Amino acid sequence: MSLIFSAADMLPKIRLFEYQEESMKGETIAAISTAVSSSGIGIVRISGDQAFEIADRVYRSPKGKKKLSEQQSHTVHYGYICDGDEVLDEVLVVLMRAPRSFTAEDTVEIDCHGGVYAIQRVLEAVIKNGAAPAEPGEFTKRAFLNGRLDLSQAEAVMDVIQSKSELALSNSMSQLRGSIKNRIQKLREVILEDVAYLEAALDDPEHISLDSFDETIEGHVRALLKDTNHLLENCNNGRIMKEGIQTVIVGKPNVGKSSLLNCLLRENRAIVTNIPGTTRDTLEEDIVIGNILLHLIDTAGIRETENEIESIGIKKTKESLEKADFVIIVLDSSKELSKEDYEILDLCKNSTGVVLVNKSDLQQTLSMQEIRNLSGKDVISFSAAKGDGLDELESYIKRQFIESKIEEKDDLYITNARQKEALVQTKDSLEKVLESIELGMPEDLYAIDLTNAYESLGKIIGETLEEDIINKIFKDFCMGK
Ligand code: GDP
Fold first, then answer.
1. All residues at 6 or more sequence positions from 54 whose CB lies less than 8 Å from its CB, including other chains
2. Which of 66, 114, 169, 318 has its CA 20 to 30 A from that of 467?
3. Which helix (DSSP H) or strand (DSSP E) does residue 54 occupy?
4. Phi and psi angles of residue 92, each rounded to the nearest 5 degrees, phi first
5. 251 lines ligand 1 (CB under 6 A)
6. What is the average pLDDT across 324-349?
7. CA-atom Rg of the chain in angstroms
8. DSSP 128-167
9. Residue 328 near ligand 1, beta carbon < 6 Å
10. pLDDT over threshold 60, residue 22
């Protein structure tokens, strides 16, 4: 008898089927899929078996044409949406029959006039006539359950919506097109073949030999680990692509931090005054440089003080520094360095960043070379008052992040914390396999770790996740998506 369980027993029951069935016979759902605001148009989306019948009940054709349910798929129909005898809106209705729709179910989209009240009345009429209000993310969840998207693609849908820069968008779009799915599936195939071979050999040792199989597996696992580690290393760049470079501006009061922020934003967002310590709290703003987002945090000056409000600001500065990808240290070049400046330079000594010697338009006291030696960082001469040095600063940031780190656009950048966690678990399991091989453990032992790695990778694409986790993921989606 085999020492190990059969692969089918060890691999988690893929529960997708149960979901699929549940989803297929589930209710027909409806929601407003556009922002509820005074816009030109707004869309009410209906998805499910009853979508066409429900649409028939609320729709009137001006010329008494055929019912919507008798029309061809992928056609558009002009008409009215009514609640009983009351005409609610003049609309265009788009029909999509299963499986050629986003959810892979029968889908009707009603293009209404925008505005808050009219579109809500249309949705109410649809619900009154048999649809259930959709949960946030329920359309995408159905697309996933119906096999239209894997989980990494479903999550990419949300990322596409939330993209704030070109790099973030192109990364999410590539994931939506299946870049994660394809890569992960390839890794899983290698593991599955090894587990299947192991199982067969342990079942039938007379005919299938495990001689030198350790070496084969070791080679495979090392390659898998290399890939997994590469994906994990890329996660930080993925986060930067998605959320932007967390950039903290630090400096003692009055050196020109708020002026720099304004200069970067090209608008007067921060209050600039010449009384030390007026930027009491941190100010946060997003700007796009090149094709990447810079998330700017202007901190209160780092300064020992009795003033409680300012102390809170200082604490926040220290906290911001811990999370920063990039630090811009601002010094006043017209004055000698003070104790506070030295403290700031010391506090930032392990951070990636640049020093701006500001107020270059005034009589210069500081030497750029000295500051370079002292800080161990590159130094840029700057004038927030005149905007001098701004181009140099922007090019510097682009060089630091885009050109040196995120240049290989075709590479895979995982941005999702859940997916990253699954990669960490995969790495742990693969390392255990190597350990077992090195210690000469029996094959059935490391077959379990191999299977765990297979399962962890499965979590990324949603093949080995529990129902409640899947529900939780889709709950974070926006309404109507
Ligand atoms: P913060 O306390 O570090 O945020 O400094 P602010 O941005 O509020 O600037 C303090 C004072 O320095 C203000 O009066 C600014 O107008 C002035 N200032 C800022 N940058 C420059 C600069 O490049 N040149 C000159 N001459 N003055 C500047």
1. 28, 30, 46, 108, 126, 129, 130, 131
2. 169
3. helix 51-58
4. -115, 135
5. yes
6. 92
7. 29
8. HTTPEEPPTTHHHHHHHHTTSS-HHHHHHHHHHHH--SHH
9. no
10. no
Q: Tokens 């369980």 sit at which residue?
A: 5
Question: Ligand 1: does its nearest atom lie under 6 Å from the Cβ of 279?
Answer: yes
Supply 253's token pair. Answer: 């009061």
Q: Which of 276, 283, 290 is nearest to 248 (CA)?
A: 283
Alpha helices (H) along 267-307:
none
Q: Which amino acid is at 101?
A: S
- Residue 352 Cα to ligand 1 midpoint, Å, equals 24
Ligand 1 midpoint to CA 275 (Å): 10
Cα separation, 75 vs 68, in Å, equals 10
pLDDT tens per residue, range 418-428: 999 999 999 99
Residue 288 β-bridge partners = 293
The 10s digit of each residue's pLDDT in 173-224 is 988 989 999 999 999 999 999 998 888 888 888 888 888 888 899 999 999 9
Residue 404 clears pLDDT 80, i.e. is over it: no
Q: What distance in angstroms lies between residue 401's CA and the mean position of ligand 1's atoms?
A: 28
The tens digit of pLDDT for each residue in 233-253 reads: 888 888 888 888 999 999 988
Residue 240's alpha-carbon distances to 136, 163, 175, 294, in angstroms, are 27, 12, 16, 9
- Å from CA of 470 to ligand 1 middle: 51
Which residue's structure tokens are 């510097």? 396
In single-letter form, the type of residue at position 439 comes to L
Number of C-beta neighbours around residue 216 at 10 A: 12
Whether 256 is in the pocket of ligand 1, judged by its Cβ within 6 Å, is: yes
Q: What is the DSSP letter of 365?
A: -
Is the pLDDT at 24 greater than 50, yes or no?
no
**pLDDT classification of 300: cutoffs 50, 70, 90:** low
**In the Cβ-directed half-sphere of 313, how many Cα atoms lie within 13 Å?**
26
Whole-number Å distance, alpha carbon 362 to ligand 1 midpoint, is 11
Nearest residue to 252 (alpha-carbon basis) of 322, 304, 316, 295 = 304
Residues 6+ apart with CB under 8 A from 234: 411, 412, 413, 414
